[in-house]
Amino acid sequence: MLRQYHELKARYPGTLLMFRLGDFYEFFYEDAQEAARVLEITLTSREVGKGSRIPMCGIPHHALDAYLVRLVERGYRVAICDQLEDPRQAKGLVKRDVVRVVTPGTVIDGAALARGSNTYLAAVLPGDPHWGLAVCDLSTGEFQVGEIGGADPAATTAEELARLDPKEVLTPDDARDLLGRLLGPRVAITGLDRWRFDVSLARAGLLSHFGVVSLEGFGCEHLPAAVAAAGALLQYLKDTQMSPLAHLRRMSTYAPEDGLVLDAATRRNLEVVRNLADGRTAGSLLGVLDESVTGMGARTLRQWLLQPLRRREEIVRRLDAVDHFVMHPRLRESLRTSLKGMADLQRLVGRAGHGSAAPREMVALAAALRKLPSVIDLLSGVTVPMLQEIVLVVKTHDEIAGVIERAIVDAPPAVLQDGGVIRDGFNEELDSIRRTARTGRTWIADFEAAERTRTGIKSLKVGFNKVFGYYIEVSNANLPAVPSDYVRKQTLTSGERFITPDMKEREAAILGAEERSAVLERDLYDGVRQIVAQAAEPLLLTARGVAELDALAALAEVAAASHYVRPEIVEEPVLEIQGGRHPVVERLVADRFVPNDAHLSTTDRAIVLVTGPNMAGKSTYLRQTALIVLMAQIGSFVPADRAAIGLADRIFTRVGAVDDIATGRSTFLVEMQEVANILHHASARSVIILDEVGRGTSTYDGMSIAWAVVEYLHDHIGARTLFATHYHELTELGALLPRVHNVNVLVQEEGDTVVFLRRVADGGADRSYGIHVARLAGLPGPVIDQAQRILQRLESSAGPAPSDDTFLPPLPSRALGAQQLPLPLNQLSPVEESLLTMSLESMTPLDAMAALHALIEQVRQRVAAGESGGRTGKVVRMKRHLPKNR
Ligand code: ADP
Ligand code: MG
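That is the input. Now the predicted structure with adenosine-5'-diphosphate docked in place:
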């Protein structure tokens, strides 16, 4: 057996081997140590002759799925080795082989799959000038390929992979390190021999799998890198799944840059599918929009959000469909009722095609198919193009549902092995075998009664166990009454067990029938599964149609309930939003949300500078504007009174300074990298959200960078940009640059405190109100008072400005004369500093005397030491604080 084990282990390098032994899957050697640690199960050992022992641990076979999930989630590859014959029948060693290798990207077990998101396996082939990319969700049969070119295909590929969030990425061995650097530590990367990415081999594999003579129909015949990646991916699936993959029937070619591009930072910052706080869907845009009633619909919405559209016709096509459902609430309601509770068609067909669908899943599939006629009925006569197209591909699949219903009982056992899955009357042979078994069992039952009468032993019992089969048990007291035709089989303390030739004959018939019926049931069940697998392609098309219907109806549901409007999609690069709201925040603050307008246009209001104190609502305003564009471009209604959205090619955001502890980069460096990315990739068609850029460094550094960034955007890019800053000094730019416009989020001063109005108005803020906010936050009174004093001091000693007393940072292109940087605090001597920080109102006269005395002492000591505390000291300290490049 160990030889068998080692042989298998050698054939599946790099995997943990789960070796079936009776009712357990066992791990041996290092695998056992690893598995015991990860799964928190007890490590034991097994005697292997001559007193030597090997480490071992095991899990019960029925708990396989749960343990498998835990291993695979931690990035392990697990080879599952099963017994291929019944151990009772086996002569010598039981035949065993690996039946499936489960890897992070090839999990299809229901328990391990998130309902509303895809589990992708990707293959990436780096190349010049194009990178090849193939992506597959094994559980649903989705299979997409593409090539990525452009100026920086590596970066674009990394972006695309960040969007898809694959669980595993395949790449040639020699490109592993490169991919590792691009994708970071969280993605499992599997290296394959380079020849697996050979184009002609890959092409041949794809042609034979899909049964076609050219890849033209899939749109990738002319994309060698994409074909190579797809071929490697398909072969990897075949090698690991040992399944014909009947549900992988189509491949579609796409160009990642065809849609509205959102980079990873933007998806994160805008909280598109996860919130920033804890990464869950609640509190994200998806959390608001996902009113879908099926897992398929949820996945579709998620895909739409992660890859919005860019072409006007496509957006309008979806908007028309959503509009229809908004205008016809009863239709929407009926449709959603029909879909509610419908099982996940995509995944059920996927599992049938994969060969792993359990009997209950087949029954669920039939039930789901039976709901389709009412769905189709509801939509007949609809004239909206997208809905019409969907109705054309959604079929009822009566035959498939019929076959399943005829073949499989209504409530089958969880696993096929238990038998009783196939319905009586479906197959004559099975019926007759079952009759034989039934008659046998009745005979045995009658036999017990008959023998009691014949022998007069009232306590005589007929029983069954695995070792002896059927037996007659008689207690010691009754042994004298045992007839002579009984054959003694076993002696117990309380009695004896016997058999009779008649009974044994019946037993053979029963057991034979049971065995034959198990084999036959399995065959018949496989037959049904194959019928489903053969219809996988039309079934999956139907499933996709249903998924889209669910997603569209969900968008309409939200639009109606939350009073969204249909956006007007225009080609001109403008944003005209009236009464815009933040879809997530408005739910949190309920009716207290204050709607705001946004007007941007590349031609005359490209850049809107948003000023206002902390907490005023700047970030919210920026994000809501970006979210409205994003929502419009997936074909959703938007939270506004009116909106005209000029198509955007990309949305960029740089929001706040988020700690990126995982990658070990400094936050300011990350902030600048993201800004660099924006300045390199934005076009006049982009929408850019910059929130507090420059906050990650010192005030003057930050302000200077922010200033220069705005100038660059204005002069060289012209993208619609919202720039929020609490550096109210930047409002000066509004006067200097024609396409920069100032708005500010209003606050009302009431004595020492401010009231946030959350209203955006024209013009810049003239102060930051930071101290007011600090007071609201509950900083102690003395700290606030002291801050006020320092602020006054700073404001009165700010260096001489040329035109007015607003601070302007030194700038290379539009320098307004070299200025002395005002650094008033650095000009103070230690004694002056102490004086300033002294809080007289909280001192007793005696305290004041003591403090004064201490100060005099300080000055005396320094005079004695020959240091004046005047000019020289000041210069030295100033130098230290000056920016390096001065
Ligand atoms: P800032 O970026 O100016 O510091 P935020 O945008 O973070 O301010 O807003 C602070 C808080 O104000 C938000 O958490 C939200 O609760 C509230 N808020 C923002 N905008 C609005 C609005 N338009 N209506 C009502 N409340 C708002
Ligand atoms: Mg903010």
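The chain has 30 helices and 27 strands.
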